[in-house]
Amino acid sequence: MSSRSGQPVVILRDNVERVPGQEALRSNIMAAKVLGNTVRTTLGPRGMDKMLVTQGSDDIVITNDGATILHQIHVQHPGAKLVVEVAETQDDECGDGTTTAVVMVGSFMEQAENLIDTGVHPSVIAKGYNLGMMKALELLDDLAIAVTPKDKAMLKQIAKTAMTGKSIEMIIDKACDVVVEAVSNVAVTTGKKTIVNEDDILVKTKRSETMDAEMIKGVLIDKTRLDALMPKKIKGVKAAFIANPLEITKTQTKSKIKITSHEQLEAFSVAERETLRAMAEKFVENGVNVVLCQKGIADPVQYYLAENGIYALEFVAEKDLKYAAKALGGQIVNKPEDLTPEVIGTAGNLEMLEDIEMTKLSGCKNPQAVTILLRGSSQHLVDELERAIEDATRVVQDVIEDGAYLIGGGSVETELALRLREYAATEGGRVQLAIEGYAKAFEIIPKTLAENSGFDTVDKVIDLRQAHATGEKYAGLNVFTGKIVDMKSEGVVEPKRVKRQAIQSASETAMLLIRVDDMMISKSAGQM
């Protein structure tokens, strides 16, 4: 840039790249559309999977989870990073609906592009989008259906909708039972509010010949007994949780013991053995028959414990130890001397699972923590199985906490598009065009469901519009038959929280990007 005198005036440093005006806006629109189109094909029960490969390593991930895909591809574009943030926020808040949220951002930006081409100013579009979002969230409350935590059949349908389309079809009914049972077990009701802490459900995976899901009222630990004399099964478990090592530890200060005779050496060995025996005796005195130790257990202590029929595990991970204590209703203590009846945990059974090298503590009464064990024939399958179970667990948790759900299959989006068009007519002016564009953006969901299932998108969207215009507010697309059916009777349901969060975060991010008319990109020395 030069002044009138011809002298150059430097405003920006050499390391700052400027993308001005329309170019910045078009760049952000393109980034959002590209990401939306990338994950679009994974939406719905008949969505496809993505294979994510890390060059130079053997890491291969096969998934249709939106958040996982976007997290793995490491986007560079600043606008695209905001879209990835939408997916991550959706995943943190709800555990599901990540693909929907990203597809919606792409669709909102596409409609904004059409409006800009017709001469509508970005600030008018942002205003219209904001009004549309407020109305959409209000309409969601009208469309929501109340549910109680005791309605297990409905909770299973919620879990089933979340898992349909993932690699879990063979055991989906069993997996739904497992998820609902697990969430119901750890749900805590105080007054009218029910809270579920997702950390109280531990998911463990193992490779095996068959695919299976099992819920354990207790805990699984990836270790087996220390001594062959220890029992493989115990009924009526009384467990102690020890944080410090069960061995004679070194003193804090340097000290030496001078032994000058055979008798002294013998006496020293006897004293040492007696100290270790006394440790084991403490467990026997307190009626303990299972010992979980975070650190090491000396060989003599192992022998004394085995002699008394006590099952012991050493070097149990701190996380597993805390989890076991919570599941069995016990407390972690530092040493055997601290044992009291209050800190001892109880369970119905202990079983050593030799085939998968695990210890199973089950049959806890009113457990505050439970474990889900998943088995699959390959590591890729087990990982995807785990992602599906975690999504289902979160959505069941959302419904139990909020006490409300919505109908799926594109019915909510079609109804919102219809009602928002009616609302747009009441506003008038150019804002009306923006709200109409916002309304049209919602049709991307039924359109994508039809496309991923191999049906004609235009025909299906028109059929859906017609059904909703005649008052069928639960009409949605059956992706297997291609027919427009009542999704409520089909049992396709999802949490209100998932849809609400997706609409809100997608709309807010779109508004944020629409209002950007300049990008200043600072580069480091390495990038230059």
TrEMBL record:
Coiled coil: none
Keyword ATP-binding listed: yes
Record keywords: ATP-binding, Chaperone, Nucleotide-binding
Annotated Pfam families: Cpn60_TCP1 (PF00118)
InterPro entries: Chaperone_TCP-1 (IPR017998), Chaperonin_TCP-1_CS (IPR002194), Cpn60/GroEL/TCP-1 (IPR002423), GroEL-like_apical_dom_sf (IPR027409), GROEL-like_equatorial_sf (IPR027413), TCP-1-like_intermed_sf (IPR027410), TCP-1_chaperonin (IPR053374), thermosome_alpha (IPR054827)
PANTHER family: CHAPERONIN (PTHR11353)
Protein's name according to its UniProt entry: Thermosome subunit alpha
Native species: Methanocorpusculum petauri
Gene: thsA
